[in-house]
Design brief:
Layout lengths: L2 H9 L2 H7 L4 H13 L1 H5 L3 E5 L5 H8 L3 E6 L2 H14 L5 E4 L13 E6 L11 H10 L1 E12 L1 H9 L4 H5 L6 H7 L1 E2 L6 E2 L2 E2 L3 E2 L3 H10 L2 E9 L7 H7 L3 H14 L11 E8 L1
Parallel strand pairs: 1-2, 1-4, 2-3, 4-5
Antiparallel strand pairs: 5-11, 6-9, 7-8, 10-11
The structure holds S-adenosylmethionine.
The site of S-adenosylmethionine (SAM) has 22 residues, from helix 1 and helix 5.
Length: 278
Amino acid sequence: MLPDKVKQHFNAAAQAEWERLDVNEYFRLIYRLHLDFIKEELSTKPRVLDAGSGPGRYALEFAKRGCAVTLCDVSDGELMFARGKFRESGLTADGFIQADLRDLSAFSDNAFDLTVCYGAPLSYITENREKAVAELVRVTRRGGTVAVSVNNTWGILRSLLCKADEDFFANGDYWHINEVIETGDCPSFESVQFGGEAAPEKHFFQPDELTELLKNGGLTNIGLGAVPCLCSGNREQYNKLAEDPIAKAQIEALELKCYRDKNMVGFGEFLLAKGVKV
Ligand SMILES: C[S@@+](CC[C@H](N)C(=O)[O-])C[C@H]1O[C@@H](n2cnc3c(N)ncnc32)[C@H](O)[C@@H]1O
């Protein structure tokens, strides 16, 4: 997808993007697991680049934890929204920079201890994704961490199964399932709506593919995660079960135990990965 189309799409979606991670228990679980994945790195109060920050929900949390945080996104609308949220909460950021992840020339080499690219910005980059990874790595210091989350190929099918959308599985042309599974590339279809418009073109990843992309970009010690893991594909059921605080705590403890298990990482709605810059 061209950056202008992505920008246009997300400029109109800032409020919805802000609400997404707090809309129900399932999405709050997604949010907490993303934070758990980098909790050691955050505990050292690093200089963080939130790359593809959107409305800034993660960036705000990083700032609350005492990190020096810079936000960057291709969408000026998302950045403006994030600026407002920082102002409201009395927290500060080092910058709100509009940039395409494939050109982070606004930042010098090695400028950050931790670079976070959460909520699938890399899935919206359908051309020259390698350049985006190279840029995320370039702006991170040696020994620093780059953490990303992307949309997962099998995980997305699991999550669609739970929606009982008859059209999706009964109509082969609806989403070209076999083609998407084969290539990971999902074109933009008028029939597939996202916030009232044609869903943007996207790439879905497999664990080996993401590992390779990050390794080739200069990262080592790659670790993966599936978010959510057990609950992926069981959105409504989890929301119901989580009404009981004891059940909610038990399920969350199980999620925390399994979401980084190498036998499970291909099944999450989001695929997480992090690695250390060589
Ligand atoms: C689904 S939102 C996730 C936002 C936030 N990280 C979160 O998890 O809540 C994806 C974000 O990636 C941004 N994005 C997509 N492609 C991008 C690109 N090529 N360069 C910079 N940002 C991009 C979009 O503008 C959008 O704000």
